[in-house]
Amino acid sequence: QVQLVESGGGLVQAGGSLRLSCAASGNNADYYAIGWFRQAPGKEREGVSCISPGSTRINYTDSVKGRFTVSRDNAKNTVYLQMNGLEPEGTAVYYCAARFGAYCRAEMTYWGQGTQVTVSS
């Protein structure tokens, strides 16, 4: 079992930055791919980024490429999502999720409780 706790959300002006953290605890948490997802009001949840256990596989959804950077520190069992150039369309609840192995899927195994990100125009 893996427990995930997100932090770092908040209110920021358009063009600003935030860094989200996802602290993982439990057995062999560093063997799990970690994905970041977001869900805006009235919209379906979408995948934002994914990082494999050894950080060898990283991907982003097209809308955040060049602005968001995902990284992980396995010694601290923490995954980060650095978000720069935030846009009002980025307003959503951001979740981290874990799945054993190298790949993320829409249906991840464990989910955090989410952290709200609000971008004002």
Give the termini distance in whole angstroms. 40 Å
Helix proportion = under 10%
Residue windows where pLDDT falls under 50 for at least 5 positions = none
Mean pLDDT: 96
Structure, explained:
The protein has 121 residues and is mainly beta. 0% of the residues lie in helices and 54% in strands. The chain has no helices and eleven strands. The strands form two sheets. Strands 2, 4, 5, 6, 9, 10 and 11 form a seven-stranded mixed sheet that branches. Strands 1-3-8-7 form a four-stranded antiparallel sheet, with no helix packed on it. The model has no long low-confidence stretch (mean pLDDT 96).
Q: Which key phrases capture this entry?
A:
four-stranded antiparallel sheet, 0% helix, 121 residues, seven-stranded mixed sheet, 54% strand, mainly beta
Describe this structure in a few short sentences.
This protein has strands at residues 2-7, 10-13, 18-26, 32-39, 46-51, 58-60, 68-73, 78-83, 92-100, 110-111, 115-120. With 121 residues, it is an all-beta fold.
Give the topology, please.
Layout lengths: L1 E6 L2 E4 L4 E9 L5 E8 L6 E6 L6 E3 L7 E6 L4 E6 L8 E9 L9 E2 L3 E6 L1
Parallel strand pairs: 2-11
Antiparallel strand pairs: 1-3, 3-8, 4-5, 4-9, 5-6, 7-8, 9-10, 9-11
